[in-house]
């Protein structure tokens, strides 16, 4: 019974982030931006960041995606805002491990995104959950980008 209540809590948090995403919208100005899409399912994310003094000062996302994609982007933005770039990049790796069914070293750092661990049971949904995280990785490592057509069937590492 307790496990069922926990599952319900996780589902509710994911639905809340999907229905009322945090940091959704467009920044007036950004230092890093990228558009990434998953052509297999049609999810598209535009991610904009303001990075100053090696820290993510602000972040917003827009685009179209399923509930898992939108919730993951919302959770990701909450988790990385105010973080150093190196810490955010480490979180990208930790999240990737999580949704592949592995145990990340710093689960608590992921915040609400840790609730997406159940995605590992649904391989087709992993790409949905990781789209925003891959966009963050590319926006931070490749600098200012405007458009990148993503083919998410290959490893980007």
Automatic annotation (TrEMBL):
<dbReference type="GO" id="GO:0005506">
    <property type="term" value="F:iron ion binding"/>
</dbReference>
<dbReference type="GO" id="GO:0016226">
    <property type="term" value="P:iron-sulfur cluster assembly"/>
</dbReference>
<dbReference type="GO" id="GO:0051536">
    <property type="term" value="F:iron-sulfur cluster binding"/>
</dbReference>
<feature type="domain" description="NIF system FeS cluster assembly NifU N-terminal">
    <location>
        <begin position="10"/>
        <end position="128"/>
    </location>
</feature>
<comment type="similarity">
    <text>Belongs to the NifU family.</text>
</comment>
<protein>
    <submittedName>
        <fullName>Nitrogen fixation protein NifU</fullName>
    </submittedName>
</protein>
<dbReference type="InterPro" id="IPR002871">
    <property type="entry name" value="NIF_FeS_clus_asmbl_NifU_N"/>
</dbReference>
<dbReference type="Pfam" id="PF01592">
    <property type="entry name" value="NifU_N"/>
</dbReference>
């Amino acid at each position: 019974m307790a496990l069922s209540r926990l599952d319900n809590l996780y589902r509710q948090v994911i639905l809340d982030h999907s229905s009322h995403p945090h940091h959704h919208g467009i920044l007036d100005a950004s230092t890093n931006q990228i558009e990434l899409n998953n052509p297999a399912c049609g999810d598209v994310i535009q991610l904009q960041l303001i990075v100053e003094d090696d820290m993510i000062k602000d972040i917003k996302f827009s685009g179209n995606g399923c509930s898992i994609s939108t919730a993951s982007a919302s959770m990701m933005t909450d988790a990385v805002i105010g973080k150093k770039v190196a810490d955010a990049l480490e979180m990208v790796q930790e999240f990737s491990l999580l949704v592949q069914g592995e145990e990340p070293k710093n689960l608590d750092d992921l915040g609400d995104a840790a609730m997406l661990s159940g995605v590992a049971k649904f391989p087709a949904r992993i790409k949905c959950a990781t789209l925003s995280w891959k966009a963050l990785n590319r926006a931070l490592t490749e600098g200012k980008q405007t458009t990148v057509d993503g083919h998410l069937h290959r490893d980007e590492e």
